[in-house]
Request: fold
Amino acid sequence: VTRLRILIARVRGLLQGRAADRELQEEIAAHLDEATDVYMRQGLSPGEARRAARRSLGGATQVREAYRDVRSFTAIENAARDVRHAARRLMRAPVFALAMLLTLALGIGANTAIFSVVNGVLLRPLPFPEPDRLVGLWQTAPGLGIDEIHASIADYVTYREHSRTLADVALWQRTSATMLMDGAPERVEGLRATFQLLPLLGVQPVLGRPLAEADNDAASAEVVMLGYGYWQRQFGGDPGIVGRRVTIDGTIREVVGVLPRDFWFMDARHDVVMPLRFSRADVRLAGYNYGAVGRLLPGVTIDQVNADVARMIALAFTLFPPPSGMSSVKQMEDARLGPNVRPLIDDVVGDIGDSLWVITATLAIVLLIACANVANLMLVRADGRTQELAVRAAIGAGRGRLARELLIESLLLGLAAGVVGIVFAIGALNVVLATDAIMLPRIASVGVDGASVAFALVLSVVASLIFGAVPLLKRSHGRLVDVLRAGGRNASAGRDRQLTRNLLTTVQVALALVLLVGSGLMIRSLHSMRRVEPGFTDPATLQTFRAAFTGVAADDVRRLQLQHDLVDALAGISGVTAVSLMDLLPMTGSSSQDPVAASDKTYAPDTIPPLRRFFTAAPGTFRALGTPVVAGREYTWTDIHDRRSVAIIGEGFARELWGSAGAAIGKQIRENPNHAWSEIVGVVADVRHDGVDRAAPSAVYWPLRTEQSVAYLVRSRRTGTEGLATDIRRAVAAAGIPLTQLQAMDEIYERSMARTAFTLTLLAISGGMALLLALVGTYAVISYAVSQRTREMGIRLALGAQHGHLQLVFVLRGMAWGAIGVACGLLAALPLSTLMSSLLFEVSPVDPATYAVTGLTLLAASALASYVPARRVSRIEAVEALRSE
Amino acid sequence: MATAKHDVLYGSLGLLVLKTLEALGPLHGYLLARRIEQISGNHLAMNQGTLYPALLRLEQAGWVTSKWGLSDSGRRVKVYTLTKSGRKQIAVQEAEWQQATGIVARFFDIQEDPS
Reply:
């Protein structure tokens, strides 16, 4: 109890502070007066009595200090006082302090922002219980030259029934469908999945039941689960939704449940989740069209599950018949399927990690440069205080005490910058996330949170120690007597500091060069990408949208007619010069590929011919896209409606098999031994279907047959205008078809370069910041050198030196250090830029032009940054300079 | 000088203050210091200033209270009064002190081993 009482009393003492001091003073004064009275009564003179009273009291100061120790927590009070003093010292030169604060705040803010992104995207675990036990069950097929293929239903059944390492496994697939809402068709996106998906992820529906095993059986009644948002939006959150029937793609389905509000899975939209249905008896090998997600048994490693999957792939070959059209599993074995299991989070994040880490590294460099700059400014300040500190040291201030003051100053500055930096980071993230330009995975989980704040504060402290240590290290050399004697004009100590400053500037120049080389390489990459012929022309005048012909036609013939009619209707819109359709627009993630055999080539029995990418084209597709027809012709509507066995192939495919585009015309190909041969009637230029930075795939464009969901191409100068959009919507609505993804081809084209552009933008910003800081650093150093040597210049001028010559001395000095910085930077950039080679496109990471231009630019910039302050030399008047000190 | 003066034994000042206040009633700082010196028969030499941190410590523990009042000569002074828990504390500390001195005393009583 007593201890507690003491603690409370001391906390109160902390608050009372000065009032308590005053009381003590009064008490002691009274004490002395009383004592003096007593001594005087004993016969001493007033003066003697006073002295005697003081003597018997002891040192008043010691009493006060001992009293203070008791009164409260001395350490806290001292620290608070130090902080107050440090703040006061910083505010004595407000511009200086503000410059340092902003420099640091920018560095810390940028790093905090990128940390928030890296943390949200790469580091934070997936929002499921025990997320590290979740894996994506991929496979490789080196025999087909494919690194990553999905799983088949045969794999799924095998995994479920024979696995030794998986607690559970589920298949899933993205899907889109047409839901009839009050008779009006509406496009919905969602998932098809086997029943274990939700329990495997640990997710419970908020309403109704999850999918059940029976729902996956092709013979069961059709059901659907609704996403929370879709349920709220379209059904007003109706609590009686379970049991209602909805029409999706012409099929009536019963709603069995609603997903929770925060349900997230692989960044996929989920208006609806429908069961993936199959019949166990009909399962055959192949058909690698499904994502497989598994939950590992506790303690199982990726290596163990890989071994298990390898065993089960072979096992599946013995359990299921080969796919239709294949006589034996021999062909399957040639694909040399193997396991490729990885943590599920890698499936989400993909290769965005490369970009993010490079950006993180560059921003860390920016912060280092900022620290160097602030250290430089601190040194200048320290120089100004040399005398003061020396005097204080002379009258007994300990070295530790002075060092502590400097360090507290640095920490105060660093933490203040950290707080401002956090504000910057929040602002920057809001701006960046508001633009759709960057397609970051898991973007919903990116934000400045507790972890980001903690990171910013730790960064502030680390930065403070870095830039605070430099003046501290420089301090301990100075010999007291020398400083005092030199009256602030200590030549040798000054030169030592000047050297430190020059070295710091050199480091800044070198680091800036590294960043600028990085930016330069990205600029060259983007430039190369823009020069690539994508296989289509003028994407800015090509309007596109998707239309779903599901549940609107009785059969294929009727649907083809509807698709044809819509082409005609769109062609009637004013300002439209060409209209057509295809299954998938270039650069929108097509992946369908299968082997194709040619009739005039022989293949070893039971081997698989090389794979080609499959697309579907219609009459006028290539004219609308602007893809040159190299040989032969496009399809005609007669080809389509009469179901003629014809094909169009890409130029690369034609050259590979027959040497030239022209030689391919009239040759026959087929995808499957059971199919009829199709005659090649046209060869078109290669299209970069996978994005400008990927090679054009070897492609076959089959004629439009059974495609239900298609993309329309409308070539018009009015592309992107509201008027054209309205006209198109009206025409499509008149046909009774739901329309989605209305966008100009330009947007798709730009998006394929978005990651490069995003990385480039951030690199360019950090490069620009680095350049600016390095220039300011150079400027400050030369400027300071000029001011320090004004007197010397005066003497030299008096002795007959020319202004121009003296200026040149300074400029050359600045350039010499700049050159050293550039040289170091070039050496450092070589290994560092190879780290980012995965982000580059058709540019070598050691591209000589980039290095040369960047180096020369920085040299010129440092010459300029030296020249500006050096000009002040010309204003020095010999007489004045000599008189100045 | 015939009798050497002694420093106040470390940590015992608090007990001396409490005992003095118990015996003489409320006192202000200077008087308290004088009385302690006088009771010791002027054998204790203390810097009177050390009294104040000690008084503050006692006050924080709740064993004495202080309030501003007037001295005999009419000066504004802080007057210290023993509290109830202070009185109890004297008993506790006295017992501890007796025990401590008792232990030390035993060491002086050690006889040389007779054998």
User: Anything to note?
Assistant: The mean pLDDT of chain B is 81.
